[in-house]
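Standup notes
- DV: blocked on the single-chain target, sequence here:
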Amino acid sequence: MNFHQNPNTFASEVHLLVSDLNRSISFYTEVIGFKVLEQSDSKAIFTADGAAPLLTVTESENVQPMQPRRTGLYHFALLLPTRRDLAKALRHLVQTGYPLQGASDHLVSEAIYLGDPDGNGIEIYADRPKEDWSWRGDQVVMSTEPLHVEELMSLDDQEAWTGLPSGTIMGHIHLHVADLHAAEQFYCNGLGFDIVTQYGTQALFISTGSYHHHIGLNTWNGVGAAAPDPNHVGLLFYTLVLPSQVALNETIQRLQQIGAWVEEQHSVTWTKDPSGNLIELRVG
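- DV (later): unblocked, structure below
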């Protein structure tokens, strides 16, 4: 299902601020199953295939714990290639004894939820075939049902866990925002995403190319929630990949037309949503 390549726009990387780099490296390699692509005294870049970066964690001096009820990351979501891969990941997570926060069947996908040692949310999921998704007009049908664990685990081949499969990608990112209408204006009118599901006035799911969602947006931390103060654990920024330079130029024009902040620094284009979430715009 080619929802994460040209001509679509999608999130490809997430950058987090953490409080203890060594602890995060241990967690993301031993529990999640990443490989370390690059490492310094203050930063680690993680990959699944040994080449493409998916997650970067950075430790800074005097970093403070995550602030409650703020905008920012709800979770980043790692998309595994198959349901069997998800079954193997679930077996591994259970064997580690690391606490899980949930497991759900969303009809379009099946997902496992947990948090890293700093409280950054993580989803690990596998998509159902797109032919099995249901649509009502331009809205994809999603739900949150209990995961059928026994059925899923029947796919597990019991082979030794060797980490995330090489085909793992950043499937989507889900964000806390302060105002859903303002977020819709920015992400749809500015960045060019389409609404594919809306849950009342509290959550919005958007995508390109009719994916079930490349980005989730919610006000579950409160309408009008403030952005985190500087140097607190959480989301530093995430990367959106656009299909071409033409698409990037058109996106910059739309963002400027709606009054969004856009800036180029050292040949990198940055923007910021109305809730303070920083985004790198990159041509794929």
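- Follow-up: The chain has one domain: 10-283.
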